[in-house]
User: Which sequence fits this backbone?
């Protein structure tokens, strides 16, 4: 069976839609986009504000023949794929905040939510969800609980086609997944570090209700954050972690 790209008018969440499709046998590479999400989801149980015909809400299903522990670097890899896509469209100055926020001018431009399916033997089913702010309507702006930016304000003179953006993002995600399956995070590490906005910054990491302060020192070859703390350099996986620049 061939991979498919489904474009929906409205959905609860493109990630949820694709997880359901995966249970019904959707193949690796299948993608879903929607004009609006009624239950758009962000990391750490947050909501993702998803107004109609304004932004990009896209998910891709991929089957990885990797032990789940090796999948940790995937969300960083998708960050690299998105920066590549934006640069390909002439949008510069976008950096990455570990684990996987796309940030420009100190404000969030895009987010990534990766969900790993239950193990049933065989390949691991992974749903990769991406939200890119393109032209956020002023009416919903106040619902967003963090500083944000959209492509319209970054490139006011450019005509931003969401179709073109979707095509380029999709192509970069497909290519990055295929490469990650072969090489793991290692092959992406230098590029990730080139876009790393937190390097050498004092940060506060919240991990299992504990706040840990230190200076960010990039990532190791599986994508864990290296944090220079009073107790020496410690590494953190992306699990239930949030990070703030102090
Ligand atoms: C985050 O930064 O918290 C992650 C946001 C991910 C949002 C996207 S929009 C498409 C896909 N469907 C969802 O429900 N969430 C992701």
Assistant:
């Amino acid at each position: 069976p061939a991979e498919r790209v489904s474009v929906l008018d409205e959905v609860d969440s493109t990630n949820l839609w694709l997880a359901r499709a995966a249970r019904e046998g959707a193949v690796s590479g299948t993608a879903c986009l929607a004009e609006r999400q009624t239950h758009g989801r962000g990391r750490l149980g947050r909501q993702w504000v998803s107004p109609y015909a304004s932004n990009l809400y896209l998910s891709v299903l991929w089957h990885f023949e990797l032990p789940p522990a090796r999948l940790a670097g995937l969300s960083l890899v998708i960050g690299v794929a998105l920066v590549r896509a934006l640069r390909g469209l002439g949008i510069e100055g976008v950096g990455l905040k570990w684990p996987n926020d796309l940030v420009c001018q100190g404000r969030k431009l895009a987010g990534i939510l990766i969900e790993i399916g239950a193990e049933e033997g065989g390949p691991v089913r992974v749903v990769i969800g991406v939200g890119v702010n393109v032209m956020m309507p002023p009416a919903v702006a106040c619902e967003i609980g963090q500083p944000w930016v959209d492509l319209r304000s970054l490139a006011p003179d450019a005509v931003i086609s969401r179709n073109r953006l979707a095509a380029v993002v999709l192509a970069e995600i497909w290519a990055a997944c295929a490469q990650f399956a072969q090489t793991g995070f290692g092959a992406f590490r230098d590029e990730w570090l080139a876009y790393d906005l937190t390097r050498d910054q004092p940060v506060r990491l919240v991990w299992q209700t504990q706040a840990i302060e230190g200076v960010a020192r990039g990532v190791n070859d599986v994508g864990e954050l290296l944090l220079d703390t009073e107790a020496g350099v410690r590494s953190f996986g992306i699990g239930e972690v949030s990070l703030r620049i102090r």
In short: Residues 5-194 form a domain with the BirA Bifunctional Protein; domain 2 fold (CATH 3.30.930.10). The first helix runs from residue 14 to 23.
